[in-house]
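Throughout this chapter, every protein is written as a compact record of paired, labelled lines. The reader may check this reading against the record printed directly beneath this paragraph:
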Amino acid sequence: MGAVKSKRMPRAVRERQMMDAAVQTFGQRGYRAASMDEIAELAGVSKPLVYLYLHSKEDLFSACIRREAEALVAAVRAGVDPELPADGQLWSGLRAFFTHTAENPDGWAVLHRQARSHGEPFISEVLVMRDEIVAFVTGLIGAAAREAHRDPALADRDVAGLAQALVGAAESLAGWANDTPGVSAKEAAATLMNFAWAGLENLMHARPWQPPVDDAS
């Protein structure tokens, strides 16, 4: 009897291995310093195979951005229980965000640092993800505020601005938490919750802070 041929690894599995290796290398070494040789070696494949499956280094980096962005958005959406009260929804969303970024530090480094520092086309990929998260947070804040004081005329601009501020703060805090030993996802989420909730709660009950009347700027 002839020797039994070894079963070929499915393309999707092989691509995932290469993508995992690429995210780790880009996240830890940076886009410029990372090489296709390093990625191929870490994935346990030849460099020509990486090019065959994932084309150029730019294409590979863009694919990594899209994969990590989709995973982060999915984690945040899955983490929010719509049956919870407003503060519970925000808390669960923040926990999901910081848990995901803590468990995937290389992916977060790709999204938050590498993609944003190397211009187009990479930054556009990240902005698609950011816009989706901002829209999701805007919906959470807006629905909770309108329900709290039954005011359908609540300014969409105010809600959108708060969502932008909250997402921006979460992004910065996740970078700090990942770089600071001993900071858990729960602690990071609680820090932002304590920072943001008082203002959001006031908005939801139609008690917004107003600048002094003599402040003309």
In short: The chain is about 75% helix and 0% strand. The two ends are 88 Å apart (CA to CA). The chain has a mean pLDDT of 82. Residues 138 and 163 are 5 Å apart (CA to CA).
